[in-house]
Amino acid sequence: MNSMHVIDYRISGDDMQFVEIELDPQEAVLAEAGAMMFMEDGIALETIFGDGSAQNSGLMGALLGAGKRILTGESLFMTVYQNQSGTKRRVAFGAPYPGKIMPVNLGEMGGELIAQKNAFLCAAKGVSIGIAFQKRLGAGLFGGEGFIMERLQGDGLAFVHACGTLYERVLAPGESLRVDTGCLVALQPTVDYDIEYVGGIKSALFGGEGLFFARLRGPGKVWLQSLPFSRLATRIVAAAPQTGRAGREEGSLLGGLGRVLDGDNR
Predict the structure, then answer these.
(1) HSE-up of residue 190 (Cα within 13 Å, Cβ side)
(2) Alpha helix segments (H runs only) across 6-136
(3) What is the pLDDT of residues 17-39, one digit of tens each?
(4) What CA–CA distance (Å, rounded) separates 102 from 157?
(5) Distance between CA atoms of 58 and 117, rounded to whole angstroms?
(6) Residues 6+ apart with CB under 8 A from 155
């Protein structure tokens, strides 16, 4: 495992947050491509192939790292930002949607954290971003995010983001919690994750909560988000004006009436 860079940081903002990281000379941070908000002079960036953890293991290691990122739906490339000046410099990364940025000290988490796809934002150089397969068929097929989640490993700082408000819960041994599958952000590997059927056919069809819950059983920490991004995207698409046959009136209060008056009631 690569040696971890120890970084200082500050999270700013309320609903649209960004994390500002202070780098000592030669320190570096790894981030998703396109996440950078600003960087000061003296910081050099390098686009790398794969997940950043296999750069010293030759071509095969880089290809394996890239393959992991394809499976999690991420870009083939990541970016390393290194302070090559002689004094402290800052670089900042913004969350891709409204919500909260969560700093995680992997050393305090036992060296590993399991997160949903697309939750990772940035981390100290040396943190490995890999994949975690769901062990159960039910969790893989109906877990909202499929078989594959992101596995963050190391003993440095990593930052993940959640949509809406972030909720942290510590589960005692044997304690269970049922959550909407899209509301799960991250969990410790000690937490057992499985999928549970909602119940009666009436609840399944008309309850509005979907057919399946995620069942989390302790011990360990879990992090939930109040607004899954998929739910937010669905509401935005539903509320967006349609610009098809109805033109500019589509989506307005009089849009439907306007179509009738225009003779276009198809």
Answers:
(1) 14
(2) 58-71
(3) 999 999 999 999 999 888 999 99
(4) 10
(5) 26
(6) 4, 106, 107, 111
CATH number, residue 63: 3.60.160.10
Whole-angstrom Cα distance, residue 246 to residue 237? Answer: 17
250 within a domain of the structure (yes/no) = no
Identify whether the C-beta of residue 98 lies closer than 8 Å to the C-beta of residue 13.
no
Nearest to 160 by CA among 171, 146, 149: 149
| Closest among 45, 44, 80, 76 to 63, alpha carbons compared | 76
pLDDT tens column, 180-205? 888 999 999 999 988 777 665 554 45
Rg (CA), the chain: 22
Q: How far, in Å, are 237, 243, 264 from residue 256 at the CA level?
A: 18, 13, 9
Nearest CA to 36 among 101, 98, 94? 94
Measuring CA to CA, how many Å separate 187 from each of 36, 115, 120?
26, 6, 13
pTM over 0.85: no
Question: How many separate domains does the chain show?
Answer: 1
Tokens representing 159?
């930052």
Output the CA–CA distances (angstroms, integers) from residue 262 to 232, 246, 247, 259, in the order listed. Answer: 33, 9, 11, 5
Does residue 260 lie in a domain region? no
Residue 57 sits in which domain range? 8-230
Please name which of 11, 3, 20, 19 lies closest in space to residue 89, comparing C-alpha atoms. Answer: 20
The rounded distance, in Å, linking the Cα atoms of 208 and 220 is: 29
